[in-house]
Structure formats: structure tokens, C-alpha cells
Amino acid sequence: MTGSDIPLQLDRVALTLPSAAGPVAILRGVDLTVAAGERVAVVGPSGSGKSSLIAVGAGLEQPSEGVVRLFGEDLSRLNEDGRARVRRGRVSLVFQSFHLLPNMTAEENVAAPLEIGGVKDAGPIAADWLDRVGLSERRRHYPHQLSGGEQQRVALARALAVRPALLFADEPTGNLDAENAALVADMMFDLVAEVGAALVLVTHDSALAARAGRRVTMAGGRIVTGA
Q1: What are the CA-CA distances from residue 203 to residues 38, 109, 216 (Å)?
Q2: CA–CA gap between residue 128 and residue 141 (Å, rounded)
Q3: What is the DSSP string of 26-47?
Q4: pTM of the complete model
Q5: Are 196 and 37 in contact (CB under 8 A)?
Q6: CB atoms within 10 A of CB 177
Q7: Which residues of the chain register pLDDT less than 70?
Q8: How many CB atoms lie within 10 A of CB 214?
Q9: Residue 71: Cβ within 10 Å count
Q10: How far from 41 is each of 107, 157, 164, 204, CA to CA, in Å?
Q11: Contacts of 46 (CB under 8 A, 6+ apart)
């Protein structure tokens, strides 16, 4: 397997951020490799660096030290446009708070990244993905007309419609009740398997983490088990 076949590699990655009290070490020498198609759950207490690992791994935050590679490309050598190019069509993200565009319908939200990527028939593809997550009858609805569980299913459809090679999911069930959390989790694992994407999942839910192939535990900005 070549470097370009490996979705994510973190090598001695550190992240230090300024604060009123002085620099704060968020990540401390993190090493992590995620293979193609692998499902990795990242667990640990609040403040342990889990969400920062996703931000750095996806190229949304630049590390203070170390190397982050997406599909073999060293993100530190790229500007913001270059990092966006590496992500486009290959990396998707799902967050706890949905992040749907409020002035777009469910179908338009799902179609948006397809259109940005120059995919033909973005509308029909978006409609098909909304059907996959059980929302075909809600495709003309705006986010404020949808429940939290429905919004997260739209966000999941939007993330996977581009058929990424790597999905980052940061507490994707954290804002949902037990019934909707179970539904979203089932859909996420089924659809990730269908498209063949690797998954990096941050969660406090031990049952959800147990469904991943590997469990990585963080504490104090370090990976303490599972790397």
C-alpha cells in the first residue's frame, strides 16, 4: 500500500493554542494511521483532544508540530486552497450540530457539495440519498422544518453522497435522543460500508464506539491506547 492509498497519517502531531493564561497544549505528540476502509472510534474525557484531532486531521486546523498526511499529501506544504483540493470529493465531515445551510432545502443541502465538485445530475443523486436515509418525502423542507434527527440524516446524506474515501464524524449522535441516535448510527455504519469509506468517529457513547473496528483512547492530548 502506497502513501496515497492511506487516508490519514498523523506523525508526532502537536497543537498548542494561545489563551489569556498562556499557551495551552491541546495535542501532544499524536501518532495515528487510519487505513483504507477502517473504522476507528476515538474516545476519552471532555478536553482530551478528540475534536482537535479531527480538526487537525481534516486540515481545518494547522498543527504546531508534526506532520499530517491526507492520502499521502503533507498538509503543511499546502495553503488553504491546496488543503481544500485534497479534501474535495475524498473527505467529508459530520458534526454534532448538523451545520445545514438554513436557506436551502434538504435536497439542495445534499446537492451542494456535488455541484461544487462538478458532479452531473446532482439533484437526482441528492434525491436518491435522501431516500436512502428515509427522507424522500421531506426533500423540499428547510432545516427549521425538520427535527434534530432528520437534520442529522440530511447531514449524513450530504457527507456520503460524494462517496468520500474518509468520513470524520464528531459526536454525530450527541444532540439526539436515544431512538434517533440509534437510527443515525445504524445508517452511518451501513452507508459508510456501502461507499467503502474509512471512518474516524469521535464519541462519548461506548456502545457506538464498540461498533468500530478499532478503539483509540485519548487523555491529556495524547493517545494512550489503540494507536
Answers
A1: 16, 25, 11
A2: 16
A3: EEEEEEEEE-TT-EEEEE--TT
A4: 0.94
A5: yes
A6: 12
A7: 1-4, 227
A8: 14
A9: 19
A10: 29, 20, 18, 10
A11: none
